[in-house]
Amino acid sequence: MSAADQTVDRRALNRRRLLHASTAAVGAAGLVAAIWPFVDQLNPDAASRASGDVIEADLAGLQPAQPRSVRWRGLPILVVQRTAAAIDALRDEKLLTRLVDPKSEKRQQPAYAANWHRSIDPVVSVLIGVCTYCGCNPQFFAEPLFADDVPGGYVCPCYASHFDPAGRPYRGPAQYNLPVPPYELVKSSRLVIGRNRSDVSFTLQSIERM
Fold it and tell me: Are 76 and 130 in contact (CB under 8 A)?
């Protein structure tokens, strides 16, 4: 084959390669265009992602020992105005000796709730209503169920773990306190769930066991 013929063949081969590359590029672009609406649905915008991250609940009319439940990020949040008897029970020495984590040393709550009442205000309890042993939803009880129970506590209906008014287990298999969500109290009448006080950083991922 002459040099001229070889040059023509190389030019033809290059044209075929360019044509194939262009066709592939157009096909890929068409495929991306076709599937993009589907992909875009899997990536909600900022407003959608933020929806439900912070909610507010009006505490006006909240009565002692009358639990109120709200949903936050798909979780039940139990809000209770503790009675004087329930608050006193939190520091009862007999109860403290039965608690698994009386000083809230396990990270089941933000720093501002790592106190003897596990809340911002001793009167208002805010807990995630998910048993830390089995994932069932504990039920609130205002009066003691047994002689050695405390008023204003919680009982898991699945494995009978008992939690005191601060969500600390003292009977049954649960070994972790009920989680406290990030929250704020505004003028004691408005609850903001999903937002921390001051510069504290605490999220659901911060919780050791839920």
Answer: yes
